[in-house]
Amino acid sequence: MTPTTSNVVPCPEVESLDAILPEEPLLMMGAGPVPIPAAVAKANAIVINHLGGTMAKVVGQVKTMARYVFQTNSKWVLGVAGPGSAAMEMAISNLAWSGTRVLSIKNGFFSARMAEMGRRVGADVSLLEVADRTVATLEQVEEAIRRVRPEIVTIVQGETSNTVWNYHLKDIAALAKKSGALVVVDAVCTLSTMPLEMDAWGIDAVITGGQKGLSSIPGVSLIAFSDAAWERVKGRSHASAHWCLDASLAENFWHNAGYHYTAPVSGVLALHEALRLVCAETLEKRFARHLKCSLALQAGISAMGLQLYAPAECRLNSVVGIEVPTKDRPDLTPGDICGHISRHHQVEISGSFGLPIVRIGQMGEQAREHNLFRTLHAFGRTMIDLGVNVDLPAGVAALERSLASSSAKGEALNA
Ligand SMILES: *Cc1c(COP(=O)(O)O)cnc(C)c1O
């Protein structure tokens, strides 16, 4: 018999990773993923049995540490194999179904995603549209709650796309709670970079990813449900269509040491180490580090002569948005800047979904002084190379001044 060759797929010739990856790793200073500490990288290289005593101990510690980071005593902490978006979908697809009234406060790209996920499970989603670079006022939220009578309110703490911080979050959660709605908060960008107190603020579900504030790898995320939210999950009359994201099935693995699907063991070990480093640092010191570094970076960028995108009162510190300057170079695009700084300085920064800005992250390991100096210098040089008139020495001086003065203040406080 002669073999038929027509359907045979030939073995491909490809390049090795060594040939593809840059010789010197790029410094990841964009809107995520962010650099990971050595302990996280080491854990991520290990595979263990996804069931059994060792894994159960790791999972137990992950939940305990996550409760500290979420500031909750709720039992219902779960991990998710998937991006931050999978945790968002886990929240919405377990808490909402056909006809559920959802009010989504939409500040931009990511808060719109939450609304879209609600529509896809058949929920009756109403948007509170917030203008770019502003936050919803309490009056607007109150009015929307009266009109919509939502069972669920969704909101993002930090809208990474346009770098807006929803600083009314605590009061908005209180308004929603008073009306009897459950509050779902997307804290993918912000968790462990700035205060969020799930229990004290009355939040019913908090979502986070690995690769942003926590400085872990992308692909393993965390979610916490309040008792009230968990009651709604357990009281559903029909199972969610999303089998992998079904919180009741995930309970098997995350609470009963049983099988749901094979957990991403390496990623869970990496997350364990990322959380352990947060605990070792403490939230207070971590928030202070992020604030100090982000404000210094903002001071440096402003002193160079560039404009920050979000107004000061609602400016997100975890990701800094910078307007693309078009005075000297009307045709300059975010892609030009990101491409140049990556190729010439081995520093990665981000554009933003069509907005005329570039973004520099201040999440986890990004918020370190040595990374700030390298990034600000690379950014200023890039601008000059691209024909934009900036005062780079003034920027670096302002960065140093801001870091030095907040160190002095910190020492005075500790004295
Ligand atoms: C990054 C981000 C997401 C999405 O996370 P993925 O891991 O890309 O799915 C959602 N919300 C916010 C606020 C984010 O910053």
Automatic annotation (TrEMBL):
Record's keyword annotation contains Isomerase: no
InterPro entries per UniProt: Aminotrans_V_dom, Aminotrans_V_PyrdxlP_BS, PyrdxlP-dep_Trfase, PyrdxlP-dep_Trfase_major, PyrdxlP-dep_Trfase_small, SP_NH2Trfase/AEP_transaminase
Domain Aminotransferase class V: residue ranges: 48-328
Coiled coil location: none
Amino acids binding substrate: 359
Cofactor(s) of this protein: pyridoxal 5'-phosphate
Assigned keywords, A-Z: Aminotransferase, Pyridoxal phosphate, Transferase
PTM sites of type N6-(pyridoxal phosphate)lysine: 212
Family: Belongs to the class-V pyridoxal-phosphate-dependent aminotransferase family.
Matching PANTHER family: ALANINE--GLYOXYLATE AMINOTRANSFERASE, AMINOTRANSFERASE CLASS V
Protein's name according to its UniProt entry: Aspartate aminotransferase
